[in-house]
Write a structure and sequence with these properties.
Dipeptide-binding Protein, domain 3; seven-stranded mixed beta sheet; 22 strands; about 30% helix; four-stranded antiparallel beta sheet; about 600 residues; globular
């Protein structure tokens, strides 16, 4: 059995954020950014060839499936770099790279993709056998070495299983198509559902052929400086769309200023039978739907009077929520839960939902656990005692601010130091409508709002990852599963976007909250880190529920009303001209439309 993981080759988020500025920050966020340099210009010794010069793809497809995805996912000019440790473009996650398995949110089961079988021993040593039918887009077989390369690099880059597995020798192969994950001793008693959630939905972005050298360099590094050097090189690697290998159902064959085209991957055992190609980039947002020219539109939930060809598939239970993020720049927001509570009360959350996603239910609990399954894990009496911040209640907001020492003069709020209270509220353009409602509410309440909207990549690099804000908004990345609350609560308190108790420190690990289940009770001390770590090792449902209830209670008090509404991947499809089965449960695979296609295929009517 593995010893405890050595920390010699692991670095803090703070260190990683400093490795390469915005690029490093964006890598940790798992979101957008970009650059224009060729991969071979950045790192000595790396030579990546144009795959289109090596492989003669069949591009003679008659049927065009025209898609619209958020923020122009055209890789032309390397807007999206094909290196998951630099930037993860969602378009590749959807179409270009294959999952080990995907979680079906309807059945609570994992659907096998690359994985053909797996076995989890009593000590959680996990043996996974992958299918021998998959190959990379250049024809090279996908083997266990590729998965081990991915898992090792994820861990060395602090975006994988590094908390549970020693990356140097906790992942290894047994033959060409079998690999083993061996957890450290202290994690052999994890609840199996929680353990499965750590690795079962691994997405294969990297091949041993293109990225194996970095594993060797990590394992040869003798100190933190050596590890940082490898991490910086890997973060800065910019692999172009035509240089990358793809494990998933589609391959890029064209990218220009007007559009990009992807064809079915001839090496993918399912997609190779398809007779249509994807085109992206001609239309933005709903304009293509209004014109009746696109076949799939992502993330446009409430549109009326569209052409009759469009229908709405069922929305999977994603576990994500739209959220307010509180920053640490303003001392009063940082130091006083009452101030954060007042801000939540001052936002008309029902109106926010009505404007941006009509019909979407509000999260009345604000526990850090997705409202869809919070009742599975938190004691009923604790839930009933929680404060509901969703009603618009400026009277209570006023009382809370005055308790801290704020004063209102001629409708304007002043801090306890006598200064006019100004809140810095920068927002990425994904959430322009949402943030406008919030800013208007707080302005009407008497707060001077320094509110501005920038392009999402700019917001990511200049605000989200430098934490230069007093308030902002983003997605609260929960987990799409009702098997364990740890992932949601860990994300709520320790996700790098939230930085509540990580090494960037929004508040201390030890906090004071009212006694659990009694909002008027005496204040008690709770160590959030210790509670989180203990919860993931809970050995009984009763013990798990106790920890979840305590942490959910703390979240409701400390981070009030941050999760406002469920955020799932809503889309429209052209069911009038393509044979989509709108009623199929196959839509409900971890909010990824591509998995419906893999289960059902697609052809024109």
């Amino acid at each position: 059995m593995r010893k405890s993981a050595s920390h010699q080759k692991r670095l803090s988020r703070r260190t990683l954020l400093g490795l390469s500025g915005a690029a490093g920050a964006t890598m940790l966020a798992g979101c957008f950014g970009g650059g224009d340099d060729d991969a071979s210009d950045l790192i000595d010794g790396d030579e990546y060839e144009d795959i289109l010069d090596e492989v003669d793809y069949n591009e003679d497809y008659e049927d065009e499936f025209h898609q619209v995805v958020p923020d122009s996912a055209n890789p032309y000019n390397d807007e999206f770099v094909r290196n998951p440790y630099h930037i993860v473009g969602d378009v590749d996650q959807l179409f270009g790279n294959e999952y080990l398995s995907v979680y079906n949110t309807e059945t609570d089961e994992f659907v096998q993709r690359l994985a053909a079988d797996w076995e989890v021993d009593d000590d959680l040593t996990t043996t996974v056998t992958i299918s021998d039918e998959y190959a990379w887009s250049n024809g090279t077989d996908i083997t266990a070495n590729d998965l081990v390369t991915q898992l090792k690099l994820d861990a060395y880059m602090q975006v994988g299983l590094e908390d549970y597995v020693d990356p140097e020798d906790g992942f290894y192969t047994e033959g060409d198509y079998t690999f083993v994950i061996e957890p450290n001793d202290e994690f052999t008693d994890l609840e199996e559902g929680l353990w499965m959630n750590q690795w079962a939905e691994t997405i294969l972005f990297v091949s041993e052929e293109q990225f194996g050298q970095y594993v060797e360099r990590f394992e040869d590094a003798n100190d933190d400086d050596g590890v940082e050097s490898v991490q910086q090189d890997l973060i800065e690697l910019e692999l172009s769309w035509n240089e990358a290998l793809y494990s998933g159902p589609f391959v890029y064959v064209e990218a220009n200023e007007q559009y990009s085209d992807q064809i079915p991957n001839p090496e993918h055992p399912i997609a190779q039978e398809w007779d249509f190609y994807l085109r992206t980039g001609v239309y933005e947002g709903e304009e293509g739907l209004r014109a009746g020219e696109v076949d799939w539109e992502h993330a446009e939930p409430q549109l009326e009077d569209l052409p009759d060809i469009y229908e709405e598939p069922p929305v999977s239970f994603s576990g994500q929520s739209f959220a307010i993020l509180f920053g640490s720049q303003d001392e009063y927001i940082r130091d006083y839960p009452e101030v954060r509570q007042a801000l939540s009360y001052a936002v008309d959350m029902q109106n926010l939902v009505d404007v941006t996603s009509p019909g979407t239910p509000l999260d009345e609990y604000g526990t850090g656990i997705d409202a869809g399954y919070v009742e599975n894990f938190v004691d009923e009496d604790v839930l009933e005692a929680m404060t509901n911040y969703t009603p618009h209640d400026t009277d209570t907001a006023t009382e809370l601010l005055e308790e801290v020492g704020f004063e209102q003069d001629d409708g304007q709020w002043f801090t306890p130091d006598g200064d006019e209270w100004t809140i810095n509220f920068p927002v990425g353009d994904w959430f322009e409508d949402h943030s406008q409602v919030i800013s208007n509410n707080l302005s009407e309440f008497g707060i001077d709002m320094d509110y501005y909207v920038t392009e999402f990549p700019t917001w990511e690099s200049e605000h989200a990852q430098t934490f230069e804000y007093d308030m902002t908004v983003h997605l609260n990345y929960g987990m799409a599963g009702s098997y364990h609350p740890y992932s949601d609560l860990d994300g709520a308190f320790r996700h790098p976007d939230r930085h509540a108790i990580d090494d960037l420190g929004f508040f201390d690990e030890e906090v004071e909250v009212p006694e659990v289940g009694n909002s008027d009770g005496e204040m008690i001390t709770m160590n959030l880190d210790e509670e989180l770590d203990a919860m993931r090792l809970a050995q009984s449902e009763e013990e798990l529920q106790d920890y979840a209830s305590e942490l959910a209670w703390a979240h409701n008090y400390l981070l009030p009303g941050v999760s406002i509404m469920p955020w799932s991947e809503h889309y429209w499809v052209n069911a009038g001209e393509w044979d989509f089965d709108i009623e199929s449960d196959d839509w409900l695979n971890t909010n990824r439309e591509i998995h419906y296609l893999l289960e059902n295929g697609l052809s024109p009517r």
